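Exercise 7. Predict the structure of Nucleic-acid-binding protein from transposon X-element from Polypedilum vanderplanki.
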Amino acid sequence: KIINEALIEASLNPISIKHLNIQKKRYDDHCVYLVTFLKSDKISIIDLQEIQAINQIRITWQSYRYSRNGPTQCSNCLRFGHGTANCHLAPRCIRCAGDHKSKECPLIQVKDGNPLTKITTSKLKCALCGGNHTANFSKCTKRIEFVKSRSTWTKQTIKRNPIVKFQTAPQLEGFQFPSLPNSQGPAWTKSSYASAFPEAKHANARGYSQTQSNPNDLYSHEELFSIFLDITSQLAKAKSKQEQIQIMMSVAIKYAVPYNG
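Solution. The predicted structure, encoded as tokens:
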């Protein structure tokens, strides 16, 4: 309200005044406002810079630039595609394209201790295309070319890397599991299992005991390594998947069931 009254007193009629949130404040009471005027009023930044204080508080004016609109542009080297924080290239002036920082531009004039950033168009030189405008001009030919090339590159990337759609896994309840696909191998039956592993059929007759094992009686690392070597040596002799399964189950029975001899 105070800003609006001060601008009206200066014969300026803003259509809106919005408080902006800023991440890095120069001081505790640092505030930024976005003041919008009608385009038909033809109010320039020079006219606004004539107002240097409101309610005994010093203020400064800058043209508003919507940072999310368009490509990222470094304020140090003025190139597109990266920010200023990690730029180690030589600086270039945004106004005269000189080899110095923009704030050190010799074209900037100072009036009553305040810099006037408004410069005659004929004196401006773009560091990107050489035109008579600042390097952050939205209609710069180099900026337009970069936006087009980035759009083309994005489309080509999408074509080379199509979006993969994953199907969600079926929701299973309890012990309802999907049936396995039919294999070409023979189906296992009780008789075929008994013929493949005759030692399992007579396990109890030979004195095997599965109920009196000590839960703390574990194989040592050396014994496990010996079992591993036994499995791999026998699997190397297998000629089919069925033989591989038979060997693994035979070795499992051999070592899992202790013999009380």
